[in-house]
Amino acid sequence: MTFTIIFIGLIAHLRYTPLNEPTRNVAVLVTAQNHVAELIVPPGAEIPTSRAHFTGTVDALGNTHYDISNHVLTFVGLPTGRVVRTSRFSSDVPKLADISKTTDLEPTYVAPEKVGGFVNTFIDLPSGTLDITAYYSQGGVHSVIKQRTCVPCATQFTAAVSGDSVEVVSDAGQHLLLNPDAVITVQNLKTGGNDPDYAKFATLMKNGTDAGTWSVCSVACPCTKGAAKCPPISGPNLECSNSTFP
Predict the structure, then answer these.
(1) Strand runs labelled E in the chain
(2) DSSP-derived secondary structure letter, 1
(3) From the CA atom positions of the chain, what is the Rg in Å?
């Protein structure tokens, strides 16, 4: 069976090798004003457990929204090994080194996986594949890259599961037990305000001061990549899209 995580919002996919440790693949939810870090579980995907749990609310569709702010999350029941990035993930998700003009990660928070300050949440990804789920139907222009391009609105991590469950475990001792074929969503989206958000990614980079901003193409530039498309594009949507390192 295949376990799937969909990533939406202000999230950076980082790959780095701490000193004397194995290479890590981490999804980082960046701290930004009016943003909420959530793990969303659809109806029927969760297996009840009596262990300590995350705080959650249920929406009108029956999805449970769990608050994962200020946590480091790991997984039990997924294979360990290497995370593979598909060619379109590598080419189409903007690279932090390109947009911030600095090539090293900020060691204060990133390498030790320390939440607080610039980082809201860390999610350690084991062996699996990173790919793009869908693109905005219209392209955008980044202030640093300065060219019209297709912009992914969602990325995904998939992993093969041989067992009968997958468990999400937080550094604070919370547990969430899921079916092995669950499709869950991790999102870090704006709940209000109009301030630019994408520039916040610069805080993940050593001496980073700016990661630029996104704007909608002034002349129509339809995106022809991929079959899946996101809701109609807008500036705020673009400002809450993913990035990657390296």
Answers:
(1) 2-9, 11-16, 24-30, 35-41, 56-58, 64-67, 72-76, 83-85, 119-125, 128-135, 140-142, 148-149, 152-160, 166-170, 175-178, 183-190, 214-216, 243-245
(2) -
(3) 17
The answer to whether 224 and 44 are in contact (CB under 8 A) is: no
Residue reference for tokens 């305000």? 193
Angle at 123 between CA 183 and CA 193, to 5 degrees: 85
Write the DSSP symbol of residue 90.
Answer: H
User: Beta strands 72-76 and 119-125: pairing type?
Assistant: parallel
Q: Which residues pair with 138 in a beta bridge?
A: 222
Nearest to 150 by CA among 89, 75, 68, 208: 89
The one-digit pLDDT tens for each residue of the chain (246 residues) are 999 999 999 999 999 887 667 788 999 999 888 889 999 999 999 999 999 889 999 999 999 999 999 999 999 999 998 899 999 999 999 998 888 878 888 877 676 677 877 889 999 999 999 999 999 888 889 988 888 889 999 999 999 999 999 999 999 999 999 999 999 999 998 877 667 788 889 888 888 778 888 888 878 788 888 767 786 655 557 888 999 998
Task: Fill in the amino acid letter for 138.
Answer: Q
Q: Name the token pair of 218.
A: 């002034």
